[in-house]
Structures are given as structure tokens and as C-alpha cells.
Amino acid sequence: xxDSIPQTRPVTILVVDDDDxxxxxxxxxxxxxxxxxxxxxxxxGVEALEILRSPEGLPKPYLILLDINMPRMNGQELLxxxxxxxxxxxxxxxxxxxxxxxxDKLMAYSKHVAGYIVKQHVGDGFMxxxxxxxxxxxxxxxxxx
Length: 145
Description:
By secondary structure, the chain is α/β, with parallel strands linked by helices. The chain has a single domain, classed as Rossmann fold (3-Layer(aba) Sandwich), CATH 3.40.50.2300. Helices cover about 35% and strands about 15% of the residues. It is built from five helices and five strands, in the order E-H-E-H-E-H-E-H-E-H. Strands 2-1-3-4-5 form a five-stranded parallel β-sheet. Helix 2 runs parallel beside helix 3. It is globular, with a radius of gyration of 15 Å.
């Protein structure tokens, strides 16, 4: 007997990316696919941590789309902070970056990311990534506590 409660709240998407064009591409793809999930944006890891650690926090469930190359605190540094913080260590993170460097991929997966997506492989915009995420959060149970 399964006593779990089905996920009824929409998944909030925290986009951590300093590139306005990429963020706009994600927002357009969501709108085109009629996906109305809330989006919160941080321009770097410092801003993302401020959002995640603020008293009101980020509505759960949420997932994070994380760029690697950013000013102040990059994606690698943010991932390290997330995994060390007992309140944030279970965050579901997808890396969405231009970096094809194997060391970046190894680092990301060693920090338990859900996926590593290279932006230039996305093709025409962010449609495929957005569709994949939509299917992901409909099937996978995300932490809400």
C-alpha cells in the first residue's frame, strides 16, 4: 500500500545563469510549451544561495538549472555549497552550460547532478530541454520537505 501523497504543487525552477539570452530562451520555451511553472532567476551562485537560504526560501518542490561559468560564485562552487548544506543537499540540479570539458562533467556528476546538458547541443532553442524537464518532474518524486 502506497501512502505517499501525489505531487500537486507546481515545480519551481531556479535558473542560475548570468546570460540574459539563455534565460530568455528557457522562458520562451516554457511559454511555447504552455508550461506555467514558476521561474526564479539568480545571476550567480551568491544570489542563488541568498534565495535558497532566505527565510521564505524557494517554494518546494523545486529544481535548479545551473550554468557552470558565472562571475562571483560559479556553478562548481555553488554545487559544492549545496551538497555541504544539510538543508539544501537534496536539491535536484541539472547543469545547463556551454562547457564540454570532461573535468566539469566529472565534477558535476561527483556532486550528484541529475543531468549535464551542453547548451550548443540543445539545438533550436531550449525546447527539447524544457520538454525533458516537464516529463521529468511529472514522473519523478521531488523532495518537498
